[in-house]
Each structure stands twice: as C-alpha cells, then as structure tokens.
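### Sample
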Amino acid sequence: MLFAEVLVENKPVPMVRVGVTDRNSESAPNEDLLKKYELTTDHVVQAVKKVLEKKS
C-alpha cells in the first residue's frame, strides 16, 4: 500500500492521483508522451485545482 493511501485512510485529506494509468509504454519524444499520459504542467495544475476544490 502506498503511503498516500494509508494517510487518506487514517487522516482523510483531499487527494487526487497524478500519474500514468495502466497502459503499455512506448517510445516517443518526451513532450508527446507527457501530453499522451496527461503529465504536462497544465494537467498537474488541473489536478491541484481539483484537490483545492475538494478542500473547500
């Protein structure tokens, strides 16, 4: 179990997972992969905003 999962189970805090979902990996230029797997700065900012909305 991940530390974040243990934390949320024992001390409920807003949390959104940011990362690559279960997919086969592939080779491509870094920027293309970041876009495909939704790991660009914009995607991370959206995830942070989502957490802040839950906190309110």
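The longest helix spans residues 41-55. This sample (Transketolase C-terminal domain-containing protein) is used throughout the tutorial notebook.
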